[in-house]
Amino acid sequence: MKGLLWLAATLACGMAASPTKAARPSALPDGSWGGEHIAITVGATGSKIEFDCAHGRIDGAFALDAAGEFELSGTFSKEHGGPIRRDEREQRLPAIYSGRVNGDRMTLTIRLRDAKEILGDFTLGRDKAPRLVKCL
Q: Considering the entire predicted model, what is its pTM?
């Protein structure tokens, strides 16, 4: 009886007798997100990012923590207007994509990993049409 009273008091005070498990990351469902100067297509094995005059990639699932926050590794590649030369090679720079998803809204900051240079801050909506102006 004493043990039951202790257990009831412990649970009533919010002190669980067993350790709590950390929430596992969850993957953002497949779909499209759009905003000013950006479009993201989320897939189970990776995400594609399109900018006005650049593009990027996140390899692997778009993982969110319990608060809806993320910090994901990927690449960022600058583009230019005009034709692409046959011998031209794409320069993929390592990048960090971080931010938060809250319902149908995403805030996103992109920075280059090596230079720690912030490339931009964006706000996107789920299934919202992007507003891209491709470079000329």
A: 0.77
